[in-house]
Amino acid sequence: MFLIHCPYCNEEREQEEFSPAGEAFIARPVEPEGISDEAWADYVFYRTNHKGYHWEQWVHSNGCRKYFMVERSTITHEILKVAAFGADISE
Amino acid sequence: MQKKYSWYSLLKAGLSGQDWDQAIPLVEPKSKYDVIIVGGGGHGLATAYYLAKECGITNIAVLEKGYIGGGNTARNTTIIRSNYLRDEASSLYEHAMKLWEGISEDLNFNVMFSQRGVYNLGHTLQDMRDIERRVNANVLNGIDAQVVTAKEIKEQIPIINTSQNARYPIMGSSYQPRGGVARHDGVAWGFARAAAMLGVDIIQDCEVVGIEVEEGRVKGVKTTRGDIMADRIGCVSAGHSSVLAKMAGLRLPIESHPLQAFVSEAMKPVLHTVVMSNAVHGYISQSDKGDLVIGAGIDGYSSYAQRGASRVIEHSAAAILEMFPIFSRVRMNRQWGGIVDVCPDACPIISPTKVQGLYFNCGWGTGGFKATPGSGHVFAHTIAQDKQHPLAVPFHLDRFTTGALIDEHGAAGVAH
Amino acid sequence: MTNSTTNFKPVFASTFESMTDDEGYLINQEGLSCLEICDKAIVILRASKDLEQTKKTAKENWGVDLPEPLCISQGNDSIQCFWISPDEYWLVHSQFQRDVLWQKQATLPEDMSLVDNTGAYGALHFKGDNVHKLLSRWMGYDLSGKLNIGKVVSTTLGQAPVVVYRETESELMILVRHSFSHYVAGLLTDSVKRL
Amino acid sequence: MRVEQLTSNQIDRSKPLTFIFNNKKYKGFEGDTLASALIANDALLFARSFKYGRKRGLIAAGVEEPNALVSLEMGGRYTPNLKATEIPLYDGLSAKSATNPNSFDLRAFIKPLHRFMPAGFYYKTFIKQAVWAKVEDSLRALSGFSEAPTEEDVDVYDHVHHHAEILIIGGGVAGMSAALEVLKSSDNERVILVDERSRLGGEIFNEFSSDEQSLKWFEEAVADLCGFAKEQRDRFMMLTRATAFAWHDQNYVEVLETHATGESLSSDGSQVRKTLHKIRAKEVILATGAHERPMLFEANDLTNIMLSQSVRRYLNEFGVVSGKKVVVYGNNDSIYQTAKDLHSSRIACTVIDVRSAEPLNTHAEKLKQSGVKVLQGYAIVKAYGSDKVEGIDIALATHQGTSWEIIGDSESLSCDLLVTSGGFNPVVHLDCHTGAKATFDETSQAFLPEKERANRQTCGAVSGVGAWQDTIIDGKNKAQLTLQSLGVVSETNGADLSENHANYFNVSEFFTPKSIINRPKVFLDLQNDVTTLDVALSIREGYRSIEHIKRYTAMGFGTDQGKTGNINGIAVAATILGKTMAEVGTTTFRPAYTGVDFGALAGRENGGLFDPQRFTTIHDSHVAKGAEFEIVGQWYRPWYYPKAGEDMHQAVHRECLAARTSLGMMDASTLGKIDVQGPDAREFLSRVYTNAWMKLAPGSCRYGLMCNEKGMIIDDGVSTCIRENHFIMTTTTGGAASVYSTLEMWLQTEWSHLDVHLNSVTDHYSTVAVVGPNARNLMKLLCQDVDFDRENFKFMQWREGAVCGVKARIMRISFSGELAYEINVEANYGRYIWDQVATVGEKYSITPYGTESMHVLRAEKGYIIVGQDTDGSMTPADVNMNWIVANNKPFSFIGQRSLSIAALSAENRFQLIGLLTKDAALVLPEGAHIVDRGGKSIGYVTSSYFSPILGRSIAMAQMQGGLSKIGETTIVKIVQEKQGLKEIPCEVSSSVFYDINGERVNGND
Ligand SMILES: Cc1cc2nc3c(=O)[nH]c(=O)nc-3n(C[C@H](O)[C@H](O)[C@H](O)COP(=O)(O)OP(=O)(O)OC[C@H]3O[C@@H](n4cnc5c(N)ncnc54)[C@H](O)[C@@H]3O)c2cc1C
Ligand SMILES: NC(=O)c1ccc[n+]([C@@H]2O[C@H](COP(=O)([O-])OP(=O)(O)OC[C@H]3O[C@@H](n4cnc5c(N)ncnc54)[C@H](O)[C@@H]3O)[C@@H](O)[C@H]2O)c1
Ligand SMILES: Cc1cc2nc3c(=O)[nH]c(=O)nc-3n(C[C@H](O)[C@H](O)[C@H](O)COP(=O)(O)O)c2cc1C
Ligand SMILES: [Zn+2]
User: Fold this and answer.
1) Over 50: is that where the pLDDT of C4 sits?
2) Distance from CA of residue B219 to its chain's centroid?
3) What gap in Å lies between CA D176 and CA C99, rounded to an integer?
4) Architecture label for domain A3-83
């Protein structure tokens, strides 16, 4: 029951308003037909499932309905950063 | 030599004040073992036990980062059943069920396996279709299963609410008479003690922090208590499987999620069987101590913290009251969470990996306690022979690539 | 609406209708009233990826300055414009002047769009000192601390998705999806008994 | 017995009350708790212990009480397992011991057997499964406390959300002081103060005989706080009888408030029994105080062996005491406080201090001067008595460094009340719920909360601060730090605590010698009968971790969660293991701090409010027609419309024939509807559906199938092309929400370059389907501005027009195979249109039908229902719908790549076929299995009905390699009512049973 800052609403809201949408940065292969079954399985099923801070996707499902990215600790649930898609998350 | 548990020994100890032997001896890790099992949960300990008992390998260490049986084994609602839908899964769980039926004697340790029966309720027409399909499949596979009507449920469980006024009225249920519960701690300890009696080293407070791989073969592990060599390593670390995989440079098709449970204050027995409902998200039984043991739904985000959202607990309490309105003034005594390792097809992975000598047994998600003896048994054979036990074959990691998934979402439900 | 060639007389029926009193009140008591408002038209304006383009269009078409996040702005003829999401604005107007909103559809750039969603919502108007007391039983949003006048928020009431906005210090509006109206009316009238 | 009135008493002697306990009538006063009133009546026996069958009484006055469990009232207000110490007395109260100490149950017989029942007893016995199965239930019958309730609760529970800048948990001196400070030093910050007790003040009334200064401070502070609560109502809320029971991430604290009417009989059930407050606070100040722990010696569980502070509480707050000849024993100055209070109430007492007489203890000296016998440097070895404590054996204690040992012979002392104090356990529970660890502090000899945590302060006894004057300062200081963290003040002006502030009552080293630990019946956990020997045994057997000790002995598993016993248990384990307290550590603290009623957790989310009930705008018309409903997702859909005397089959028979022969109508409003617009709308549809969408013309509709990346069917529906770049997609009722969010996900995260907008318009439209050969005739009557000619308004086209005067979008689509139109209008006109269609349609005997008939009609045509004929593991090819897979679209549609994996086109996959029973009248049960000659399952029945139009049964099934077996005979097996398996021969057929060539869709002109 943590709070998440929605980068679009620009406000902290209860986790209940959001839905988790899995690990971030799992890009769909550009040419699915051109890759091996292994590479395809890696995209569809395999996950890093990192212990510690990682980037993941959430959607503000009961709010603005926007998907965005969150850097959250899977150990403490602490959130370091949130970012809209396409935003620069390097700094 | 360890003292056997029996009425006689109990009487003798009671009269003489003579001591019991160590069930779980304190040992220092050796520098090398034939097999290392990472993870001292029920599955890991069972694996070690069957390796020692049936596979002729006794130079084994079980490495546990905390205390044995302290992971999901300590946190689950202990529901045991084998009425799964797919042949592959039901064979595996039924294998476990058969082992459960003789496990206390085999281990010389009463794990309080109690076949009080399990009901899986249906609340919609589609639930009932699924139940019919599953029960028929079970019966064809020789697994005890029945479809029961709401009226029959009410006769067996008079305190259940079968009224049409419930938000999701109970339409019927599947019933497995041989299903039930067992004492979770006892399961871990019973396997540990029996394994230790066969010479297995059980080493606690020993976290594996690295896996040594050379030319595609495992060499050993790095731990918080030093390096330990082994030719074969079996990882049975449930919620932490991805962490161990990463140490060997692998990824797994797994996500770790919080799954919560809670118990009520203890009351006189009033619920004599296990009742589960996937549709309203509540799973309940009453333990021999008298507390209601209740399982909640899974939290959707990934986490290694053993806690989840209180909203999930509230919802489960509400679901339990939908089914058992008389529990409204009963109080929650304690609430906790575990970390479950969830696989995309709701089936486990019992498999060798690309790294020679490294095996994984994981992905049991919300429902692996019931498989404990079976899982350990087939995994032991898989490690010993470097070849999957026949019952484990469908659970190879390859299935995610070959497409041979075993979809158990229907029977595994949302939890347990 | 009516078709002149026949003698059909369409009957408008809101989903709250069977639960409100003759004057349209769901709740009407000391310190708290909840009245159903039936005359709102809601048209969704979806923005162009080019924000300037959107701003310009909104201004030209309806006289609205696009509101900041979680805000409401005013346009011509008392058209209200709600920020719902970065590319979604709701133009709220009287039912009977819905055409004022629609007329401009043809002039929209092709990457902007209008969707009529009037039929989807019931509107409840809350007034009185006990509004927060009632709503806080089902709403986790910080109404007293964060919902200032002119602010609009999409959130939940119980398990129903709603849009809530503040008109004055003691007046709030909540838009409820029609299919949830029995549920929402149920939870409000249940809680109000125990304020 | 009751003693004279003290100023700190909270009972109102002018209001006598009568109550019943264990079937006997007693008297008490307003302000009493059940526990204090029973002490006043000298009724001291509460329980018989589980394992040893020993009789037990009260040991404490607060929530830490382990023994005095009772059930309250009967019927709809019956409540199990309440602690007598937490029940305020009311007139007519009726309570019963959870385990009756006087009844002669099996437990009494177990008593002499306990030596054969060490910790872990069960694990060592009943090892044969068959034996265990026989005895388990009888053993089970012995366990548990109160009987379970038998009736539904008559009361209700509310949830309320709050937001505050500052939440203060605990309203003792520390919390009060902190609250006042934050209120005085800020203007707008919202403050909440909660305390579990009936009034504020915590332990202040027991502060050295409620010295006048402390009481004066208290009264002024209460007045100030009440002033704030009244005048600044918007920002200050003060709750008593409100327990913070859980603390979650980011200061989300759950508080359970019991209302005044809470347990009483007077409430009529409409009032709230309890409110669960959900508080989200920016800052939390934890001021939860400390629980006293008992001293250890043999038979320390006898009735009337109580905790020192609790005895003081009973005396000072309720004017009751349970003995006349008291021994007070302990290792800290709490015992002198109690002795002093007893002495001034003229109750004879002797003090035994385990600490040596050196250095000089001023409290001891003062007490001696007033004539109280004080023995310093003595330890109690053993207590004795039958029902209650009658005396003790003491021995001299010699001290060496931090430890002591008993020497010499023991001597006996008689007493009728034994009071002990072994130090204090700060109430760190809540602080540890999100994973913080308590650390053992040598100075205060206690586990203290973690020093620093973000947005949280601790003050008072919970952080190891002793005297009340220090506590006030500590409260203020922490309030200042809190305000600083909030940015309200920039600098803090803290005052210093006194030098000995951390020295809790001058506690001695936390230690009990092995000579005592090794005795029998030295109890640690009274509720679970855990003794020091159990801990020792657990360790010897290899269960060494404190978590193992807890689990092996059940220490701390009870309803008190080890509040008084756990820390002693840790100390004993430390001694046996030769480790420090810190090394042994605590077990994990978890919610709930004290029990929370399931009803309170659920709040109002039961029955109709358990989960939203969603209705279409036409619902009332269905109800009026007598419809039975089916739950689909959260929706209630008409299932069938029985006429008087009809069962479901008869109703469905009639409904189906009406649609096939003349006219039927159904409410299709629940289907998900998504408005898709934008320059890339077509491209988008082509990516998410398996089939082609680039050429669909405005005015037309098309059926589409949707897969996930695994290549499995997840949804289907018809999408309508409104304009070149504008479509309306329909989804299944149950799949609407997930399809919508999945589509948004693709758009936002993966294809953000596509210019498409999605909007859910499910609720905007009501949809009435008009189905049957007379559909066109009816439509002509309803709508004049549309040309319904079959050539001008073709199948899979749509038109806009006014239906009964309402603007409508009419689609000519069909899920029954008949000529059919779906009328979509703005939802507020849905009911009107439905009623009009019904009225005008009378001419053609129009018949409303529900989901059951819809299923029959579509099954006759072989149309699938996603989720019924598919189960998440079916590809389009599996359901014989390869015709809808366009493999050469430029963009690899979702799931396409997976479909090329070899296993997904294997020949023996489950494939959708039809089944025709040889006996045409026999309807296969859905879920029955198809078996091969060996009796192995090779498929199962997904949909099965009696088809009225065909006059025979039809079924759809998934069968391994089924498509290649059409025409063959196969066997379906079903479980016959538990009497074994029944075999039914069937013919494998195509899954299309009726109107194979699809001619009916045009109707008859
Ligand atoms: C709330 C809840 C309810 C459940 N209910 C049921 C149920 O009713 N029925 C059912 O069948 N199943 C249930 N389950 C699932 C079940 O608990 C698990 O599937 C099962 O216990 C897994 O056993 P295990 O031995 O694999 O894992 P665990 O018991 O978790 O053991 C894994 C061990 O590995 C250790 N470990 C991890 N990393 C390392 C490392 N690096 N080095 C050394 N050791 C390490 C951990 O400390 C842990 O002790 C439930 C789970 C939860 C959380
Ligand atoms: N108990 C001790 O160890 C001890 C030691 C030294 C001094 N004292 C005296 O005790 C007082 C200490 O003041 P203090 O304010 O720190 O403690 P306190 O014990 O006086 O007050 C704490 C209050 O918090 C309440 N509380 C505890 N947990 C709660 C929860 N989860 N939810 C709601 N309320 C909860 C308690 O019921 C109590 O009323 C002083 O008078 C001090 O001299 C006590
Ligand atoms: C089946 C089962 C029954 C339990 N019964 C109790 C109980 O009666 N009392 C109790 O305090 N805890 C009970 N627990 C919970 C444990 O105390 C503990 O919370 C759980 O094992 C998780 O460990 P942790 O809280 O130490 O992290 C039970 C746990 C399980 C799995
Ligand atoms: Zn948002």
Assistant:
1) no
2) 29
3) 61
4) 2-Layer Sandwich (3.30)
pLDDT in tens, D918-977: 999 999 999 999 999 888 999 999 999 999 999 999 999 999 999 999 999 988 887 765
| Cβ-defined contact of A3 to D709 (cutoff 8 Å) | no
Domain hosting C155: range is: 17-39+119-192
CATH architecture of D858-889+907-996: Beta Barrel (2.40)
* Partner-chain contact A64 C85, CB within 8 Å: yes
Chain A partners within 8 Å of D252 (Cβ): 1-2
Q: What is the pLDDT of residue D6?
A: 73
Q: Is the CB of B413 within 6 Å of ligand 1?
A: no
- The verdict on a CB contact (< 8 Å) between B130 and D927 is yes
Q: Which domain holds residue B320?
A: 115-180+255-342
Residue among D36, D113, D531 at smallest CA distance from D294: D531
Q: What is the mean pLDDT of residues B44-51?
A: 98
Picking from C118, C140, C161, the residue at the C-terminal end of a domain is C118
| pLDDT at residue D443 in the model | 85
Q: Three-state DSSP class for D164?
A: strand
Tell me which architecture the domain covering D156-290+426-504 has in CATH.
Answer: 3-Layer(bba) Sandwich (3.50)
Q: Which residues of A touch B311 (CB under 8 A)?
A: 1, 16
Task: Say if residue C128's pLDDT is above 60.
Answer: yes
The alpha carbon of B367 and the centre of ligand 1 are apart by a number of angstroms equal to 9
Q: What is chain D's mean pLDDT, rounded?
A: 93
* Residues of chain B with C-beta less than 8 angstroms from the C-beta of D927: 128-136
d(CA B266, CA B116): 18
- Measured between CB atoms, which of B13, B22, B409 is closest to D542? B22
pLDDT in tens, A56-91: 999 999 999 999 999 999 999 999 999 998 887 775
Chain D touched by A47 (CB under 8 Å): no
Give B198's pLDDT tier (boundaries 50, 70, 90). very high
Check if C18 contacts D (Cβ < 8 Å): yes
**Contact between residue D750 and residue A84 where contact means Cβ atoms under 8 Å apart:** no
Which ligand is nearest to the Cα of residue B185, counting in written order?
A: 3
Res. A38: pLDDT tops 80: yes
* pTM listed for this prediction: 0.97
Q: Is the CB of B74 under 6 A from ligand 3?
A: yes
* CA-CA-CA-CA torsion sign (D102, D107, D112, D117): negative
Q: Ligand 4 centre from A4 Cα, in Å? A: 10
Q: Is D735 helix (H, G, I), strand (E, B) or coil?
A: coil
Could you give the CA distance from residue B105 to residue B115 in angstroms, rounded to a whole number? 15
Q: How far out from the chain centre does Cα B390 lie?
A: 20
The pLDDT value recorded for residue D1005 is 58
